[in-house]
Design a protein that fits this description.
By secondary structure, the protein is α/β, with parallel strands linked by helices. It has a single domain, classed as NAD(P)-binding Rossmann-like Domain (Rossmann fold). It is 45% helix and 16% strand. It is built from eight helices and seven strands, in the order E-H-E-H-E-H-E-H-E-H-E-H-H-H-E. A seven-stranded parallel beta sheet has the order 3-2-1-4-5-6-7, with helices on both faces. Helix 2 links the parallel strand 2 and strand 3. Helix 1 crosses helix 8 and helix 4 packs parallel to helix 5. The chain is globular, with a radius of gyration of 17 Å. The structure holds nicotinamide-adenine-dinucleotide. The site of nicotinamide-adenine-dinucleotide has 29 residues, from helix 1.
Length: 243
């Protein structure tokens, strides 16, 4: 088990990529705090981990509210005694500027800040993993995409800045940049057959990603296998940005 006795917080872990990461980390021996705005899906993921023999807690958390992110980090330390891994995954894809900035950018900032401040003084270091996107590296020009693209570029910048600031104290900070991945977030696109085919055709590997494939990358970044990696964007996109 690659995360035996490690403690992880995963935000937005009730659905899609966050859920896959929480389940993968638990299978690898981590104790997981499921920090999620939606109570029923968050509780369901924590219950699923416990019924399959793992350790997990649910904590309701709106990442747009700094005090709730701080409370989630504290809850993990109180429940499990330490914090080793913070996954700032919660995000939305919607056209409203203020809402998207509050969740996708401020939420990631609060997560980095409170996790790094908790991890650094212990001397054990830690791993912070932010969910950016391929749209944190390139634009797409779609109507309504400005806030999403801006926030995801911002997540890459925050990742680099926290990485540099905390490198000497053993806290590694990286981000994952997935391409189009089959989750409820993009269901409105993938349900329309013509759009699905277009997205698949734009992807050199000819298909969309699966949440479990992103979770494997998160496992790599969370574990000591990535011990010399910090400040890096890790692209998981079937070749989408390689075109
Ligand atoms: N699906 C994709 O194609 C794709 C591609 C690139 C990046 N991403 C990124 O991956 C991350 C996860 O996306 P997903 O596809 O799994 O989406 P999803 O919609 O399936 O899941 C997002 C989860 O975040 C939760 N959430 C929303 N607002 C929240 C808040 N304020 N506080 C706490 N939790 C909140 C939701 O309740 C939900 O459970 C996001 O940051 C997203 O931008 C997704």
């Amino acid at each position: 088990m690659r995360l035996k006795d490690k403690v992880a917080v995963v935000t937005g872990a009730g659905s899609g990529i966050g859920r896959a990461i929480a389940l993968e980390f638990a299978r690898e021996g981590a104790k997981v705090l499921v920090a999620e705005l939606d109570e029923s899906s968050g509780r369901a993921v924590a219950d699923e981990i416990v019924t399959t023999g793992g350790e997990a807690r649910f904590q309701r958390c709106d990442v747009a509210r700094e005090e709730e992110v701080r409370a989630a980090v504290q809850a993990a330390v109180e429940a499990f005694g330490r914090l080793d891994i913070m996954v700032n995954n919660a995000g939305v894809a919607q056209p409203d500027w203020d809402t998207t900035l509050a969740i996708n950018l401020s939420g990631v900032y609060y997560g980095c800040k409170h996790a790094a401040e908790t991890m650094a003084p212990t001397g054990r270091g830690g791993s912070i993993i932010n969910l950016a996107s391929v749209l944190g590296l390139v634009g797409i020009g779609m109507e309504g995409s400005d806030p999403y693209v801006a926030t995801k570029h911002g997540v890459v910048g925050l990742t680099r800045n926290f990485a540099v600031a905390y490198a000497q104290r053993g806290v590694r900070v990286n981000c994952i940049n997935p391409g189009f991945t089959e989750t409820p977030m993009i269901r409105m696109l993938t349900e329309v057959e013509a759009i699905r085919q277009q997205l698949e055709a734009q992807t050199p590997m000819g298909r969309l990603g699966r949440p479990e494939e992103v979770a494997k990358a998160a496992l790599f970044l969370a574990s000591d296998d990535s011990s010399f990696m910090t400040g890096a964007p890790l692209v998981i996109d079937g070749g989408w940005t390689a075109r």
